[in-house]
Amino acid sequence: MYVDHLILTNYRNYKKVDVHFSKDTNVLLGENAQGKTNLLEAIYVLAMTKSHRTNNEKDFIKWQAEFAKIQGTIQKNNSKLPLELVISKKGKRAKINHLEQAKLSQYLGQLNVILFAPEDLSLVKGSPAVRRRFIDMEFGQMSPRYLYNISQYKTVLKQRNRYLKQLKYQQAKDQVYLEVLSDQLAQYGAAIIHQRIQFLGKLEGWAQKLHRSITDGAETLTFSYITQIEQAKDQSVEELTAALQKLLRSDVKRETEQGTTLVGPHRDDVRFLVNQKNVQTFGSQGQQRTTALSVKLAEIDLMKEQTGEYPVLLLDDVLSELDDLRQTHLLKAIQHKVQTFLTTTSLSGVAKTMIQAPRVFHITHGELVQSDHD
C-alpha cells in the first residue's frame, strides 16, 4: 500500500498542492514552520479523518477559505483507489472511489498509516492515557469491530457518567437505568479488553524480535496488560463481561460520590518489561527509547499480518531524536518494505543512512518543489 498522488486544496498553509510520490522514501525538506509537518499531517488525516496534533478541525482550513480538501490516490491490492476528505464548518465528508460514505467509520481502514513523531518516544514513560490512545488508534485501523466497540463504549460511558452526576446531585433516582447502562458498558468493555489482550500479544511477538536485535540479544521485552479484572488474559468475552458487571455494581457508591465511572478499559494501561523489570519506572532513557522504537516498528509487521498489506510510515523529525544505532535499526526495519515520508531540516545523515536514494521535496512557505536528488 502506498500514496501515489496527493492533492491539497486550502489545507493549512497550502493553497494548492498536486504531487506524485515515490513508493519508497520521500523526504520533506525545509526549515521549521514552512509546512513539512502540515503535509505529513494531511496524509494522516486522509487515513484517519482526524489529526494527531489538534482536535480543532477548523485549524485544517486555510485562512479565509470556506473548506479544506484532501484527495489521494492509493495503490492498494494491485489497483488504484481514490480517496477524498472535505473539511468545512459543517463537518467532514468522505468519499471512497468517488462515492460519498454515510459514516466516517465506513471510510476508516482504506489507508493504513503509522506515525512516528518525537512525542512517541514518551509512549513508554508517558501517562496511561498516551498508551491507551496508541492502542485505540492503531488497533482501530486493523479491526472495524474494535473501532465499533470503542465508539459504542465511549457513547455509553458519557451517558453513564452524566447519569452518575445526576445521582450525585440527587437530580435522578432510577438505579434500574444505571444498571442498564452498566450492563451495556460491561458488554462493550469486555470486548475491548479481550481484543486489546489479543492484539498486544501479537504486537509483543514482533516487538521482541526487534528489541532483541537492537540490544544485540542482551534484553528481552515483554508486555503486560493492566486491568482491574483478575487474570483477564485467560478469560473469554463472556467471563470478562460478568467480571466487569460485578465490578461496576460493587463500586456504585464511590462512583456516585465522584460522579464518574471508575472501572473499565478507559482506566487500563500497558506495562513494558525489559528483562522482567518495569522499564517505565526502572529503565534508563536509552532503554525507554529502544522500547518505544521496538513497539512502533512492530506495528508495521503486525499491520501487514492483520490486513495483508504494509502501512504507510510517517516519520516526523524523528531521526534527529535517535542516536546512530537506533537510526540504523529503524531504517533497516523499513527499507524495501514500506512507503516512508520523512520530515527533516537537513539532508545530512539522511542520504548516508538511506540505502535507496530518496525522492526529495523542498518546502518553503507552503510551496513544494521536487529536488534533483531523486
UniProtKB/TrEMBL annotation:
InterPro entries: DNA-binding_RecF, DNA-binding_RecF_CS, P-loop_NTPase, RecF/RecN/SMC_N, RecF_2. NCBIfam families: recf. Its main location: cytoplasm. HAMAP family: RecF. The gene is recF. It comes from the Bacteria. ATP binds at G30, E31, N32, A33, Q34, G35, K36, T37. Keywords: ATP-binding, Cytoplasm, DNA damage, DNA repair, DNA replication, DNA-binding, Nucleotide-binding, SOS response. It holds the Pfam family SMC_N. SUPFAM superfamilies: P-loop containing nucleoside triphosphate hydrolases (SSF52540). GO terms for molecular function: ATP binding; single-stranded DNA binding. CDD domains: ABC_RecF. It comes from Loigolactobacillus backii. One of its GO terms (cellular component) is cytoplasm. The keyword Ligase does not apply. It is found in: Cytoplasm. One of its GO terms (biological process) is SOS response. The keyword Ligase does not apply. Signal peptide: none annotated. Belongs to the RecF family. This is DNA replication and repair protein RecF. The RecF protein is involved in DNA metabolism; it is required for DNA replication and normal SOS inducibility. RecF binds preferentially to single-stranded, linear DNA. It also seems to bind ATP.
